User: Fold this.
Amino acid sequence: MPALLTRLAPILMIMALAFAAPARAEMCRIADPTGTPLNVRATPGGDVVNRLKNGRKVFKDAIDGWDDEGNPKWAHVVGEYKGQWRDWGWVFINYLDCGHDAQNRFPIIFENPRDMVPTGIVVPWGYEGQAPPKLDHECFFYGDGGYSMSLSDELVQAYRARGYNQEQLCVVLRSPGLKYDPQTGKRLPTFIVVDPQALAQARQSGFFEGFEATEELPLHAPDCFAKSRVSKQSGIVSLNIACDIRFDPWTGVELSPMEQAYYKQNVALAIEGAAGPSGNIAGKELIVSGQNRATNASIRTVMDIRKGNR
Assistant:
C-alpha cells in the first residue's frame, strides 16, 4: 500500500469508497527532462513495471522516501487510461509538473499579519511577542489542526449574501493548495504568511524546518462551495465539493468526464483536528526570492477578483 500523506495538515482529503484512500490527491503531468518515458516502479526505487510519456495527466496520491532536507523522493500516481482507472505505481517526484502558476501574481507574500487586515482575512503566523491582530469573526477551532484565522464582518456579510455560512467559508479559506475555481478554472488569489525571523534563521543555516511560513491559502472562496455541506466525524471537519467540477481545484487542469466523476464521488475539502499545520513550505523558492511581497495594488487585485471584475 502507498504511504499516506500524513505530513499534510490541514489537508485535502479523498473520501474512500471501495479502496484505501490517500490523504490528498494532487493532479500533475509527467515531465521527464530527458524526454524519454518515465519509469514507473512497483515500490519506491523498486522494479520498473511501466513507463509513462511526458504530458500524461496523473494524480499524485502518496509520497515516500525522504531526503536529508525533508523533501520526498517518490510519488505514487494513479489516473485514467483508455476509459479505465489505473493504479500506475511509483515515480521519481522531481519528474512531475504539478501546476505552477505561469503568471506568478500569486501567492501574495505577507511578512506581517497586520498587512492582511485590508483583505478581511488575518492569519497571525509568526507574530510572537506582540498581540496578534484579530478581526470580528474567528474561525472554528477544531483540535490543533489548521491555522488560526479571523474574518472581518464586512467579508462575512459579503459571502453570506452569496449563500455562504461562516463555517463553510472558514473551511474553504483554511484549505491549503486550493488555487482554482473548480467550475471555471480561473486562478484564485492566494497568500502565504512568512515569519521573517524564522526565515532569516533558515537562510543563515541553509536548512528549512517548514514552519518559516504557512502553506498557500486562498483569499477568495468560489461561489459554488456555498452549496456544499459541512460534516464532522472522527476528528475531521469536511466540506463536500457541490460544484460542477470541471477543473482540478489545485492545478487548474481541465478534467475528463471520468476524472470529473472521480472528483464528485471521492473528493472533499477537509481539516484534520489531530495535527498542527504542515511542516512543508509552499513555494519555498518564491519566498526566498523576495518576490510577490504584498502591496496595495496586489490587495486591490484580490478585491477585484472577489467582485468578479477580473
The chain has six helices and 17 strands. The radius of gyration is 19 Å. The chain has a mean pLDDT of 82.
